[in-house]
From TrEMBL:
<protein>
    <recommendedName>
        <fullName>Leucine-rich repeat domain-containing protein</fullName>
    </recommendedName>
</protein>
<dbReference type="InterPro" id="IPR056867">
    <property type="entry name" value="LRR_15"/>
</dbReference>
<feature type="domain" description="Leucine-rich repeat">
    <location>
        <begin position="100"/>
        <end position="391"/>
    </location>
</feature>
<dbReference type="Pfam" id="PF24969">
    <property type="entry name" value="LRR_15"/>
</dbReference>
Length: 446
């Protein structure tokens, strides 16, 4: 075989998409194996029913464990496999002396959560972790809590010490994650981004570990917009733990754990939490595509009291550049005849993009009046404003099309109502457009 330059080999290898083809190339010769091993295993994606195979591989070849940087685990069906756990028993005893028998039983039964906890002990160089597994974690999430607390023997191990990005996803409300079980991720030293769906702040007793202290976490992005979440406390423990949070997203679902209870969107709880990040928050997407607050959904506070859950002013959020938020939340339109505030009073001076979600046509007078007032202050107070978006709640469906945002049409009445404002935006150099993302009430043409 004619030898190729290593740089050329790496360029060729980058064009190989299938994981099995990448592994096959390692068998060509020793030179290729040595050169390509790290790249072949840099990103690994597998089902939870396949974790035991990867554990066996990293046991036989420690180089693989150091190569894995991005690890993605999806739910997999249990099957009849040869789960050889004997070589792992000593490791389990060492890290979990008081609970090792239950853990070993989980390994023998092929429980994905038990195997994930074992795998984490070996892949100590992983920086990105994406999981789509059951939220009822008996082994992995408790181990994360112990690692974050630096409990023995994890005080001398490098488990999860390089982890920067965590994504927790779920396709089933029965697999929701409890927020308290996920808080330890924020205590890990290298963490910078935490993303989750199916996260619920449901009450279920006191956690067995201490939550992160205020402003102790290096996380700069919290994203609870991957799927349905229910934050009855405004995700306060997550937000307040961040020292310099830059990006926050949350999309609400009224259904809590297992859809056993229904808790509406609580703007005030989120506002109180976000006030701890006035100095650093740059992007805020707050329930602009989730379920809007419903009066028939329980919105009692923990003490049983019920009050109008208003938001608050963002004028002091000096770093905020991008804002996506329901118009009724921002203007605090509730039981009042008119909103108690105006856009030019509640928006921060450095704002560049404003997205007003859930625009109802009955609010047209209030919205258009506030938008015109905002533009009057464009040159002096909002000189950085470059784009305004409006997300109508009512949209039309193209004749014969399936319900999908690309097939929705903004009603002519809405477009005509905003025409004078759009012309004013053009004159001032501000882009104005409608957005069709999010939840809508779809009107089918007759």
């Amino acid at each position: 075989m004619c030898p190729l330059n290593n740089d050329i080999l790496l360029l060729i290898f980058d064009q190989v998409d299938k994981k099995q083809d990448c592994l096959t190339l390692l068998l060509i010769c020793r030179q290729w194996y040595s050169l390509l091993l790290t790249k072949a295993y840099q990103s690994v994606r597998l089902g939870s029913d396949q974790i035991h195979l990867l554990v066996r591989s990293v046991q036989n070849n420690p180089e693989i464990s150091h190569a894995i940087k991005d690890l993605s685990i999806t739910s997999g069906w249990r099957s009849e496999n040869d789960y050889n756990v004997e070589p792992l028993i000593d490791t389990v005893k060492q890290v979990s002396p008081g609970d090792w028998e239950r853990w070993v039983d989980g390994l023998r039964d092929g429980e994905g959560d038990a195997w994930l906890a074992i795998l984490t002990l070996f892949v100590t160089s992983v920086t990105s972790l994406s999981l789509n597994i059951s939220g009822d974690s008996r082994f992995f999430l408790p181990m994360v809590a112990r690692v974050a607390a630096r409990d023995k023997p994890f005080d001398s191990k490098s488990v999860l010490q390089h982890l920067k990005i965590v994504e927790l996803e779920t396709d089933d409300l029965k697999n929701s994650y409890y927020a308290t079980d996920c808080l330890p991720f924020l205590k890990l030293p290298s963490m910078r981004m935490f993303r989750a769906s199916g996260l619920c702040e449901e009450q279920r007793g006191e956690p067995a570990f201490s939550k992160p202290g205020p402003r102790t976490s290096g996380v700069i992005e919290l994203d609870f917009g991957l799927g349905p979440c229910n934050g009855r406390k405004g995700m306060n423990d997550f937000i307040a733990a961040c020292a310099n949070l830059e990006v926050f997203e949350y999309q609400h679902d009224d259904k809590a754990v297992w859809a056993e209870s229904y808790v509406g969107f609580r703007p005030r709880a989120f506002y109180n939490a976000l006030c701890t990040q006035k100095h650093s928050l740059r992007e805020l997407r707050l329930n602009n595509t989730g379920e809007s607050h419903s009066d028939d959904i329980d919105s009692e506070d923990d003490d049983g009291s019920v009050a109008w859950d208003d938001f608050g002013s963002l004028a002091d959020f000096g770093q905020l550049r991008e804002l996506h938020i329901p118009v009724r939340t921002l203007l605090q339109i509730g039981p009042h005849n008119r909103p108690p505030c105006s856009l030019d009073r509640v928006l921060p001076p450095n704002l560049e993009l404003l997205n007003l979600a859930y625009y109802y046509q009955e609010d047209f007078g209030i919205v258009i009046e506030n938008l015109h007032s905002l533009l009057k202050h464009k040159e002096h107070r909002f000189c950085n404003l470059r784009e305004i978006q409006v997300q109508p709640y009512c949209v039309l469906l193209k004749p014969g099309a399936i319900p999908h945002w690309s097939n929705f049409i903004i009603p002519d009445l809405v477009q005509k109502g905003f025409t004078p404002f759009k012309e004013e935006c053009n004159r001032l150099g501000v882009d104005f457009n409608f957005t069709k993302h999010g939840n809508h009430r779809v009107i089918r043409p007759t």
